[in-house]
Amino acid sequence: MDSRNDRDKIHLDNILAKISVEEYIQKILQHNPYPYQWEIIRAILDSVIGHKGLTFSILLARQMGKNEISALVEACLLAFRSEGTIVKAAPTYKPQIVNSRLRLDSMLNKSFVTQKRVWHAEGYIIGVAHHNKAASSKTGPRVMFLSASPDSNIVGATASLLLEVDEAQDVSVEKFNRDLMPMASTQNATTVLYGTAWSEDTLLEQVKAVNQELEAQDGIRRHFEYNWHTLAALNGKYKTFVEREIRRLGAEHLTIRTQYDLKTINGVGLLLSETQRHMLRGTHEWLNGPLEDDDGYYIAGLDVGGEERQKQGEGQICYKHDSTVLTIARVVTDDMSLQGLEIVHQVQWTGKPYLEQYAACLALCELWKIQRLAVDKTGLGEGLASLLSVKLGEDVVVPFHFTRQSKSKLAYDFLSSINSGHLKMYKEDGAPDDISIEAWKQLKLARYRIPGENLLDMYVAPDEGHDDYLISIALCREALKEWTEPYFETIIIRPRIPYEDRSWF
Question: Hey, what domains does the chain have and what are their CATH numbers?
Answer without folding.
Answer: 3-226 (3.40.50.300), 230-265 (no CATH), 267-493 (3.30.420.240)
